[in-house]
Amino acid sequence: MTDPAPALTLEIWSDVVCSWCYVGKRYLEQAFEQVPDRELIDLRWRSFELDPTLPADAGSADEELARRRGISLKEARAMHEETERMGAEMGLTFDFARARRGNTFDAHRVLHMARAAGVQNAVQDRLMSAYFAEGEPIGDPAALAAAAGRGGLNPAAVSEMLAGDDYVVDVRTDETDALELGISSVPFFVFNRRYGLAGAHPPEAIVETIERSRRGD
User: Fold this and answer.
1) What whole-number distance in Å separates Cα of residue 1 and Cα of residue 41?
2) Is the whole model's pTM more than 0.90, yes or no?
3) Which domains does the chain have, with CATH numbers?
4) DSSP the chain
5) What is the per-residue pLDDT across 102-145, written as a single tens digit (0 to 9) for each?
């Protein structure tokens, strides 16, 4: 009988409206299928806001991209169509024509609540799916509560939490940690606060870094 692999803390700074973070999550899931003793990996999703200046409702994703890049709506739609095609090849649904962009601070508060309840990964998946595939307004408290409910939280409890200031400090702490670690773009994977992977790396690279972290090379 072989000894169990050493415990590992894997932190991922991401935003729920980041398409490459969604791709990176899928790569991570594929990597975990190849990793022994997966249950010994403490996976933690950390907060990163791509644009903290956005209002709760910033319009369609196509419109927001056009404004941000200073391009036409047609050009924005063409860029998003390329991402949609890439996602389809991976089994991910991107529907930017329906996606409603908005401020993600409350979404990150929900993820910290989910962490405390032991369902963070499931809620992360539901929030990303709600935004990218289902046209749910990511900055709307009711939409967040409904999506989190499908991930294992009590929707009423989520709504109550969002009406107050719970987990505000937790989100800000994650963002401060990102600055101290030099993280300026996401996704960013941090293994035992020793090794880092910037971007959506394929499963093989993730597996290799997990093994390296466990060996302590």
Assistant:
1) 20
2) yes
3) 8-212 (3.40.30.10)
4) -PPPPPPEEEEEEE-TT-HHHHHHHHHHHHHHTT-TTGGGEEEEEEE--S-TT--S---BHHHHHHHHHT--HHHHHHHHHHHHHHHHHHT----TTT-B----HHHHHHHHHHHHHT-HHHHHHHHHHHHHTT--BTT-HHHHHHHHHHTTS-HHHHHHHHTTTTTHHHHHHHHHHHHHTT--SS-EEEETTTEEEES---HHHHHHHHHHHHHT-
5) 999 999 999 999 999 999 999 999 999 999 999 999 999 999 99
